[in-house]
Design goal:
By secondary structure, the chain is α/β, with parallel strands linked by helices. The protein has 15 helices and 14 strands. Helix 4 packs across helix 8 and helix 9 packs parallel to helix 10. The termini are far apart.
Length: about 450
């Protein structure tokens, strides 16, 4: 039975401040994000986006990891990464699949039964100690993989039980100011722990682990494409240099996910299944995943998303074959609400795109803010394919909230431009984004008028 947001995460609005204060010594969360209304006020000068904040699943990545990924990525002729959104999650998704295959002794669907097991309750295991990880498995021991994106501790339904979020902020140049980034931990309560899902479709392997990519080369999340693809390809290169999986090199077939306005993802999945993929990494968009998850899991193939966050996927009938190491938006919504409360807003208006991600996250934010005593003056679900957003922004102007939450993809830059034109941009109001838009691409698109 699916638990409601209130049942599963109602305590977070109270507990997150304590978590933030407690995690000061953690590698993943080194700063307390609690801020005063005075320090959180929008900037009075600089770019039009200065002062806008947003949340995204993020740990404080080591410079060593970022340098290693960039060296690999640029070595293949690509431009250096500036943003690393979901790079570590993508890397860790591949590593977890590899460990599960070794533990199961197969690249078939049976490896899914080991994916949760290799994420917890065993001997600690990292990429840096990969040889020891494999040795432990070969000795019939249990491993607990801790990745670059965090502990990666999975619930019985294949999604994280804990997460680290980055709270990012735009500076005067309409780009994220890394010096202002803080980190906050969030844990699901014990009541959210679920029993292990068993694989419902049997598919034999051929002894060669083959991974397919279903990542956004085009579409409204294309800005996430390079960071995620780099993480996947770097992980596969890392594994193959360490001897591969099941004694053979891991194979990879790249593929575009597009977005929900096209059938790109479906075409890609058909090709990957025909090629014999054992696991497909992606999609980035929850909405896109929901269009192909039935096809993938019915074939006995693992779908592992480093970025899907919609609560709809928590209890989805997936044959025990869908996994994600990006936390569900029950957690992100509570973290974002906590930031808004700490910044002193008394009233909020929510603008959210009409898909599983947008509506799900908007509901969580509204519930947690309301429970904290913040008045939600309106929640507008809009068509992301609209050519203009004058009407939506007009409703926000009329409501005159203290703060505005934007749950958008790349159309967020056009919404922000309309907000600025109507005097309710980040210089005038507290404005908050989420992982679907909070990146330097938002500032670049805003500056370019896109």
């Amino acid at each position: 039975m699916k638990k409601t947001t209130t049942q599963r995460f109602g305590a977070l609005v109270v507990g997150l401040s304590l978590l933030a204060a407690a995690c000061g010594g953690s590698d993943a969360a080194t700063e307390d994000t609690t801020a005063t209304a005075e320090t959180a006020a929008p900037a009075a000068a600089g770019g039009e986006l200065a002062g806008m904040k947003g949340t995204t699943p993020l740990v404080e990545l080591t410079q060593e990891f970022k340098d290693a990924v960039n060296a690999f990525w640029t070595g293949k002729g690509n431009e250096a990464l500036v943003d690393f959104n979901y790079t570590a999650e993508s890397f860790d998704a591949v590593m977890l699949i590899a460990l599960a295959a070794e533990a199961a002794g197969t690249d078939g669907s049976g490896l899914a039964d080991q994916l949760v097991a290799v994420s917890k309750d065993g001997t600690k295991c990292t990429a840096a100690t990969w040889a020891d990880c494999i040795a432990t498995i070969k000795a019939k021991g249990d491993v607990d993989y801790d990745g670059f994106s965090g502990p990666n501790t999975l619930n019985g339904n294949g999604e994280p039980l804990e997460a680290s979020y980055g709270i990012l902020q735009f500076g005067a140049d309409n780009r994220l100011d890394d010096t202002l980034t803080t980190y906050q931990l969030a844990n699901a309560p014990a009541s959210a722990v679920l029993p292990l899902s068993k694989t419902g479709v049997a598919r034999k392997g051929n002894g060669v682990l083959k991974i397919g990519g279903l990542l956004p080369e085009t579409g409204n999340l294309a800005f996430l494409g390079a960071p995620m693809i780099a993480g996947v390809e770097y992980a596969i290169d890392y594994l193959n240099k360490a001897g591969g999986v099941l004694g053979k090199p891991v194979e990879y077939s790249a593929g575009d996910s597009g977005d929900t306005s096209t059938d790109t993802a479906s075409v890609t999945v058909d090709r990957l299944l025909a090629e014999g993929a054992d696991a497909i990494i992606g999609a980035a968009s929850s909405g896109v995943s929901l269009t192909v998850i039935d096809k993938i899991t019915a074939a006995g193939v693992i779908q592992f998303s480093p970025a899907n966050t919609s609560p709809k996927l928590t209890s989805y009938a997936d044959n025990g074959l869908f996994f994600r190491n990006a936390p569900p938006d029950d957690l992100q919504g509570a973290v974002l609400a906590e930031v808004i409360v700490a910044d002193g807003a008394q009233s909020v208006y929510i603008l959210a795109l009409d898909d599983a991600y947008g509506t799900g996250l908007a509901t969580v934010v509204e519930e947690v803010l309301t429970a904290a005593g913040v008045k939600v003056l309106g929640k507008k679900i809009y068509d992301p394919k609209a050519t203009t957003f004058d009407a939506e922004v007009g409703e926000v102007v009329a409501a005159n909230p203290d703060a505005i939450v934007l749950i958008t993809f790349d159309e967020g830059s056009r919404i922000l431009r309309t907000m600025v034109e109507n005097g309710i941009g980040p210089k005038a109001k507290k404005v908050y984004g989420v992982d679907g838009n909070i990146g330097n691409a938002l500032g670049e698109n805003f500056d370019a008028g896109k």
